[in-house]
Batch of 2 targets.
Target 1
Amino acid sequence: MCALRANGLVQHSRVLDGVRLLMDRQLPHGGWNYGNTRVFGSELHRAPESTGAALQALAGLVPSAEIRKSIDYLKTEARRVRTPIALGWSLLGLGAWGEAPKEAPDLILQTVERQQRYGAYDTSSLALVLLASAAPNGILEVRI
Amino acid sequence: MSTSQDVITPERRAWTRREFLYALAGGIVLASGVSAGRWFFGSHLRSETFVAKMNGYGGDLSGVMINGFQELGLSSSEIHGKRILLKPNLVETSQGAPHINTHPLVLRGAIEAFLRLGAATVMVAEGPGHRRDTLAVYEESGLADVLTEDHIQFHDLNYITGHTITNLGRQSTLRTLTFPALFLEVDWIVSVAKMKTHHWAGATLSMKNLFGVMPGIYYGWPKNVLHHAGIENSILDINATLKPHFAIVDGIIGMEGDGPIMGTPKKAGVLVMGRNLTAVDATCCRIMGIDPSKVSYLARADDWLGPIDERSIQQRGETIASVRTNFSLLEHIPAHQGVRLA
């Protein structure tokens, strides 16, 4: 969805399909996971990286009230998580809705510094968190 | 795991004259339309499992495991110089729900035990089924702190180069399976699973745990390709093709009810070990109060990948009766219906 939108294809049928799919899979209490909402009556757990990616893809395409719970969840998670994929997508998703936390640069720095304890991140994970640093308003607002 | 062949071939000792005659007879039976494999191989499958009582995670886990190794005939001469890969069950994390995942101290115990037996290296590897961020699960589960302190390497199996081989199980329509190429560099694969009920499969133990070795970048999240191919088919295919070497199941605190994620903690107070994963899982089921012959993938594995008949599994350590504690099953979940052990 982001690739199509970045190339001016916001009305492409696949983008519209994507919006419908993502809104269908949003968890009742907010947030997204790998794509299931309920199994045998139990609402499943959400994940920050999935929520951030979904919010980034949906930015500006649905009324904010419809994703408010997800934003609120992610604002809490963004202050808690310290791994590059979870934090990177959290900040991109929040940024795309103008809700990135003010302390985002510190969160990114703390996350990068954790390599000293746990070892070097792989290139794609490091690139994601650095992209979040360079894109405070989300991927679609990046100007290179 | 073999490093010289693309296809892992089953280990097979030379046939005896009696087996040859059985095979000949089996061929005749096959021609008449009866399953010769089950008829022929069934009577030969025997295994041993070891059950230890563990009141909590603070005890001497490595000592208990070494005792289990000895009971199972696993000697230092067999382990010396081997590269051991431990595959825990790390699916996702949730605050207040550590019972979703294999406890980190069980892994520490297994690492120490294999190193004390002379393993050249021990590593831990997992590709969580529900999270794109493996590192988050690794850290939030507490495993990162343990392995960092112990200087043990962790491998993320979701984002890893694959190695494609023929599907030897042939239960699903998947003609090939793509495992991590890392497996070509190890000698032993050990499933270090969690004792849990499962809302699709009935129970998730050492065999089902191996879903997590299948890389997410090939199979998706939550391993969608395998779900589409059929969970039971895929469990059998993975195990038949990979041929894991050993299983350790963390049943100290397991999960009952709506497992593998949304269930509640269940203290079973056991560690279960063995060389044959099917036998280990059958024993675990009995401890959980589940009839393994009613768990479909175990029934299908019986007499093929291993025995599930109690008479074919020699029990070491504690008896099943002394540790059995029924895990709660939910009536509205089809995989839980009618599986309670009498």
Note: The mean pLDDT of chain A is 95.
Target 2
Amino acid sequence: MPVAAWFATVKIQQENGEYVLQELLSGNEAIARGAWEAGVTVATGYPGTPSTEILEAVVGYKEDIYCEWSPNEKVALEVAAGAAMAGARAIVTMKHVGLNVAADPLMTLSYLGVEGGMVVCVADDPGQHSSQNEQDTRQYARLGKMPVFEPSDSEDAVKMMAEAMEVSERYRTPVILRSTTRVSHSRSMVTLGERRKPNEVGFERNPPRWVPLPLWGRRMRVEVEDRLKALSEATSTSPSNRIELRDTSLGIVAAGIAYQYVREVFPEASVLKISFGYPFPDKLFREFAAKVDKLLIVEELDNILEEHIKALGIECIGKEVVSPIGELSVDRLRETRARLEGRELPEPAHLPEEDGLPGRPPVLCPGCPHRGVFHALGKRDVIVTGDIGCYSLGVFPPLNRTDTILCMGGGVTVAHGMDKAGESRKLVGIVGDSTFFHSGITGLLDVAYNRGKSTTIVVDNRTTAMTGHQEHPGTGLTLMGEPTIEASIEDFGRACGMKRIVTVDPYDLKETIEAVTAEIDADEPSLVISRAPCPLKERKPIGPRRLIDEEVCITCGKCVKLGCPAIESSEERVRINPLLCIGCRLCEQVCPVQAISKEEG
Amino acid sequence: MKTINILLAGVGGQGVLLASKILSEAALVQGLDIKQSEVHGMSQRGGSVVSHVRIGDKVHSPLVPDGSCDILVGFEPLEGLRHSHNVAADGTLIYALDRINPSTVSAGFAEYPADTEEQLKALPIKTIGVPAAKYAEEAGTRRAANVVLVGVMSNLFDFKTDVWEKALKASVPAKVLDTNIKAFELGKKHI
């Protein structure tokens, strides 16, 4: 369901008497809306929290915008780049770590430039709510010498998409739109606009423009610097940056969402709102600094503006009072304010009650097919290198069956590296289905080509589960809902040269344990595919619910060790919660005394 | 008007987000500025879910600042307790009486505090315990417990009478509207 239609549209009369339509949109929905209004006709991406809902909202405009989930971010960026070279307006979406994957084409696209507007929408995750690291995407803008916009809410996102497209076309450069978890996942009011007429498409042959062989690439290198200078003028006059003069004893430069927190904590202060911060708007920095007595810089994550403003010779404070680690908030800025004013840090109203309360961490769902694989891996002392996806939850007790996680696709290759280093224990790499197509295939090819011995297990649940069930090349459907090929993991394994390939049903523990054990023991590389659809996506029981016969149960705890949320254990007894059980029958198979059976009727 | 800060705290799958939507929709009909925020991602795997809703003439931050929550709705007693330190001295905590064991408790690693309700009642703020699942079953389905809680919460807002019904209509499918209106009314009558 397109989330763009989530809220009712309301008609609001403005002060001039005219009516406008407004809608409560999340930042991600607003980015999609902005793309539609800006006349975008091609949108690509790879799922990743907190960026995923952008393309899911674009699907709501699929009559006007071609959109696709690409196998990975690099592919997605290249596809969008092709569209923009041909003259169309295009967006590509990803999370911050996805931009690492897509960095190669982006860095050179900066040299080639674009014909139609191209906006790279990247959602950072300050505070690491759902990410393995914290990265500030604005650093990529500096590295690639291209403009970056930072909306502070949904209304900004729509307006800035329009401006970013204009800038992209006028200066023939890809533009980054940096969102953050809080912008992407918070809803605020947006004034709706009309759709701009899409560009005419027609690629113009011109090798000196589109081919960065050194002969032409060296010229492009110079042009990129000239473009930066011209853009620095543009950022100083952009409507996305503005000086709000209030009391001038303190002036605050606030970038992106920091603006919202600053307005709440320092309502009386003068503010320079920066939402188009690179190339640096030096004129604005100087103008603002001259108007205020004291200058504070507030930006989320790296202190990029602060360092530059200091380099301009302007006195200011920043990271001394605003840490570059983690997510900003009103609470953190209240601490900043207290420090600036030499006050004691404010005390919370009551002491946090969190201490001593049992936590509620994310867990593999009841009936999750990954559980069977982790159980089988528990039979042997092997090193398990994991990957990014729901199966990362296999690291927690009672499963305890993941030893490392590096990055997308790293599950396959890190095992191979340990193997080649001479690690004496057997090595198993785990990767999901979507992750396999994303960047596991090249790793598997490496294992086969370079005569590795590690076992690769693809836990194929027929969807991109962790980010909320997106289609991928193996599911048989496109983002736009069209039927398509179902890429076969087994065929990829064979094409990579794997000789040992076995597919198992993870709900059949005997079969799974035998296959996993045999492949671990084999002295050559092998590929195990554990295949069962994600029950959270299927939304139906796998089989009849299971019950524990308390007369027979010896409370040995073997079923509890599966880590299934439906199995509830207390000191005196174990029971299966009928509201949670979906009948995967794993517990029945591990019970040594046959105390577990299916519910009658 | 002063900005009203609301926190809705529960467990993935309890309908916290739908409740946020109904509340936001009501504020929208009322003509107010709204910011609503939640963290997605791993929360759908049985983890804690917290939604922030802020309503007023002009709202800046999408997050409720610590200690300034006017209304906290705990969709589960433990989740109510977990976030109770955020409630302002004159704020209200509404909580469902129906417990859901965290996985850490199910697996025997931790214990559900037996005195959770006593702890909630002893808080230095106004608390309202609600048999939400019971009311929801009375209305027709246990799944409407979230809407029962919205009904209880509606008593704390000075909105026009038809606002909540419009918000419900805009938020739930037509075929379950009657059940949800009934659940809302049962919550509204709860003192």
Note: Chain B touches chain A through 62 residues (CB under 8 Å).
